[in-house]
Design goal:
By secondary structure, this protein is α+β, with helices and mostly antiparallel strands. The chain has a single domain, classed as L-fuculose-1-phosphate Aldolase, CATH 3.40.225.10. It has helices at 2-17, 76-85, 98-105, 135-144, 165-190, and strands at residues 27-34, 37-42, 58-61, 91-95, 126-127, 150-153, 157-162. It has a seven-stranded mixed beta sheet, sandwiched between helices. Bound molecules: zinc ion. Zinc ion is lined by residues 75, 94, 96, 132, 156-157. Zinc ion binds at residues 75, 94, 96, 132, 156-157.
Length: 194
C-alpha cells in the first residue's frame, strides 16, 4: 500500500514540476488489487498535487465508499467509472495542461503523433462538455474513452490512463508535447516568410 501511495505523491510532484497542473487542479488515482477487492488510492479534493503527504491520499472502494480519512477529488466518480469499465487500467492522470486544454477549448483536435502506439484513428478521442465533477461527466468519459489510453474533455482538459502510473504520467507529458508541437506548427503556418 505504501508503494502505491508514494507513487501518487511522486506523480503529483512530477506533473506539477512539468507544468501540467497548477494551483489545485488535476487529480491522480491508482488501483490496488487487494484480497478483499480493488482499492482505489486517489488524490484529495481542494489540495495542490505538489507536496502531498501520505495522509492526504484517500482510499476508496469501487463503489466510492471512503476507507480512510479525507475527502477524495471531486472527479472521483470519473475515475471509478473508468476502472469499472476497463480491467486493463490501473492508473489515471487527469490534467488541465495548457496546450492540450487550449485545443480542448478550440474547435481543433489534437492529432495522434508518433509515440501513441498503433495509430487507429488520426485524432485523440474527445467528448462533449459536461460539468466538472458531475455524474454526467463520469458516465460520458468512461464511455468516450472506449479502449483508448487518452481522452480529451471538451472545454476542460485531458485524461490519460495506463497499466501503471508511470505509463499514465508519461502519456500526459506526451499529449501535452504533441499539442504544443501542433500549436507551434499552426502558428508558423499562419505567418508569412520573412
Ligand atoms: Zn478537471
Amino acid at each position: 500500500m505504501k508503494k502505491y501511495i508514494q507513487e501518487i505523491i511522486d506523480t503529483g510532484n512530477n506533473i506539477y514540476n512539468k507544468n501540467l497542473i497548477s494551483g489545485k487542479s488535476g487529480n491522480i488515482s491508482s488501483r490496488i488489487n487487494a484480497a478483499s477487492g480493488d482499492i482505489i488510492a486517489i488524490t484529495p479534493t481542494l489540495k495542490s498535487l505538489a507536496g502531498l503527504k501520505a495522509e492526504d491520499i484517500v482510499l476508496i472502494d469501487l463503489d466510492g465508499n471512503i476507507l480512510s480519512d479525507g475527502k477524495p477529488s471531486s472527479e472521483v466518480n470519473m475515475h471509478l467509472e473508468i476502472y469499472k469499465k476497463r480491467d486493463d487500467v490501473n492508473a489515471i492522470v487527469h490534467t488541465h495542461s495548457p496546450y492540450a486544454t487550449g485545443f480542448a477549448f478550440s474547435d481543433k483536435k489534437i492529432k495522434r503523433l508518433e509515440g501513441f502506439g498503433e495509430i487507429k484513428k488520426p485524432y485523440l478521442p474527445s467528448i462533449e462538455y459536461e460539468k466538472p465533477g458531475s455524474s454526467e461527466l463520469a458516465e460520458s468519459a468512461s464511455k468516450g474513452i472506449g479502449d483508448s489510453d487518452v481522452l480529451v474533455l471538451k472545454n476542460h482538459g485531458v485524461i490519460c490512463v495506463g497499466e501503471n502510473l508511470k505509463e499514465a504520467e508519461s502519456l500526459a507529458v506526451f499529449v501535452e508535447e504533441s499539442a504544443k508541437t501542433q500549436f507551434i506548427t499552426f502558428m508558423l503556418n499562419s505567418v508569412e516568410d520573412i
